[in-house]
Amino acid sequence: MTCCGASACESQFDRKRAARELKDYRAHGPQPTGRALIQLLRRAGVDGSTLLDIGGGIGAIQYDLLESGAREVTAVDASSAYQRAARAEAERRGLSARIQFQLGDFVALAPQVAAADIVTLDRVVCCYADMEPLVRLSAERCRRLYGLSYPRYRWPVRAVVSTENAFRRLFRNPFRSFVHSPVVMDRLLTALGFTLQSKVRTFAWEVVVYVRDGAAATGGRPNLRPGSIDPELIVSG
Length: 237
Ligand SMILES: C[S@@+](CC[C@H](N)C(=O)[O-])C[C@H]1O[C@@H](n2cnc3c(N)ncnc32)[C@H](O)[C@@H]1O
Known about the structure:
- This protein is an alpha/beta fold.
- The chain is 40% helix and 21% strand.
- The chain is globular.
- The structure holds S-adenosylmethionine.
- S-adenosylmethionine is lined by residues 3, 9, 13, 31, 33-34, 54-57, 76-79, 82, 105-107, 122-124, 127-128, 134.
- Residues 3, 9, 13, 31, 33-34, 54-57, 76-79, 82, 105-107, 122-124, 127-128, 134 line the site of S-adenosylmethionine (SAM).
């Protein structure tokens, strides 16, 4: 795994962190980026769709889209602890028969992963040094909507990420995070036949949904304005 080594993801996204995130999710719902992706995708229409959720962690997007009309999910994650937590939560919600779990680095597993109508990577590209194959291989498996969230490419965010990485280096933690250029990601997705449909921002994160050119729209209209998106997610500039 190019990001940091599969073991780095395993140690970063461990049992304790998974348990904490699951507890927080049960109490407060999805994190802001996940919440925004869910809203944008629901508005674009998820009824009857299949979802490929890459690096879905404890599975917030999966449960919500299944409960909103999506048909089935493939969940690929590099952390066994997160995947165990997601399996337990899916079971608890009676959704496990509709989720197929695959453990490992998506880039390595991609040839064995089926295409889906919707593909999501919520806070995942920032775990991966080599963004290009991760975005390209995942977009190639997307038939309609491609949802992505990543840290914003601005100096305060990059400074925080650099500082976190410096501490990780100091404490011999092999995990690293990355702030990739949204311009490069956009160019890549455009070249693969996608058009930006919607975008929202927090101070630190950008959440985008692309639609595959020529894919049938089943839901709301393409929208580059925040509209009914959670107001706390929207910042200007
Ligand atoms: C920061 S967590 C985000 C979890 C969830 N999407 C969220 O936003 O709450 C990153 C997740 O991506 C997974 N991940 C990172 N790189 C991956 C890869 N190349 N293939 C599959 N999963 C990956 C990690 O194991 C972890 O579960």
